[in-house]
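Changelog-linked ticket: manganese (II) ion example.
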Amino acid sequence: MNIKVNGKRTWDELEQLSTFSDTPAPSVTRIIYTENDLKARNYFKGLAREAGLEVREDAIGNIFARLNGDDKSLPAIGTGSHCDAIPHAGKYDGTVGVFGGLEALRSLKEGGFKPRRPLEVVFFTSEEPTRFGIGCIGSRLMAGAITVDHIHTLKDKDGLSVDQARAAAGYSGDLSSAILPPKYYEYFVELHIEQGPVLEREKIEIGAVTAIAAPASFRIHFTGQAGHAGSVLMPQRKDALVPAAILIAELESLAKNSDSPDSVGTVGVVKVHPGAINSIPGKVTVEFDIRDIKLSTRDGIVHEIHRRARQLAEERSLQVEIEMINSDPPAISHETILQAIEESATLQGYSKMRLVSRAYHDSLFMARIAPMAMIFVPSKNGYSHRPDEYTSPEEIERGVQILAMTMSKLSHA
Ligand code: GLV
Ligand code: MN
Ligand code: MN
């Protein structure tokens, strides 16, 4: 069968989707279980039903749209990604994999393709850590990679629990029912924008992702003593922000000088109490995000930051508490899927290369329960998590085309 996806349709849907945002265009902000997230969900479900796909949702709000094959009982070929967007993000992170996945199934169906194994696209809940502090809640739960008890401890900045927030969004039921049964997916393949500069720099159209870097994140809370910025003399101070600032600078140097070129360390959140220019910071929380393809290097940096946090607190007579958020191993892609991606690209005459993903994705957790790989398409200037994130309609169409061809191949593999 001659597979031909409709990239224009996906492009138009991504444009429409980008209007469901808490911040004005060109930025997109879509936080899990908010009104705009619900609009995105309804939009996706409506299109999937219109396309004749079978739609279901689980207790945490992962949405599944399925094209059944000859044998409904066979494990499915899965794809999908996320539609939540961090504050002031762009239009394409995650969304290309959700609406591209929809387009792959829809165009295969329209073309009369009969899969042997079912094909399924997933709209994952909360890949971004924005609301509840930890990323990939939906895919972690599906893979049994987070306990229901752990999910019950999560709270948003207003103190709302996941249960309260999902109930307000219309999702109920026992969270453990969202854990997938064994061998649910035969293979899982996610389409995503690269979010980095490699494909553009190398002038390559399709990336076959061989591994996803290992992410870890944690909070460090320092407690000192607040006080008047004018009247407390320097020897008497217990400033909780200074050790945090030292640690941030040390993180930069640890990541730059590690034994791996893939080490990255970021502090994107610092909360200072009471937060006044004329008050000594009494309580500070600082959030660290540290990643590497090499797990031992990543863990080495994490442990060194923890050690230094305790040491700085002791030297300065402060209290310190370290709260781990996540510490996940890397995922390695499966050769069968990588080859299916590469063969599809060759058939289409698209240039291709293998590369690693430095960002994490829901596929990091799908890899725990199924052979996994990812397809990357170029990101202009490597930009992502910012409003000027851009991938052209042609580049997106090529990615969707390769996704459709790869899924059709795997469905008969
Ligand atoms: C996902 O958005 C990540 O932070 O890698
Ligand atoms: Mn993201
Ligand atoms: Mn993403």
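Closing comment: Example verified and attached. DSSP finds twelve helices and 17 strands in the chain. The chain has a mean pLDDT of 98.
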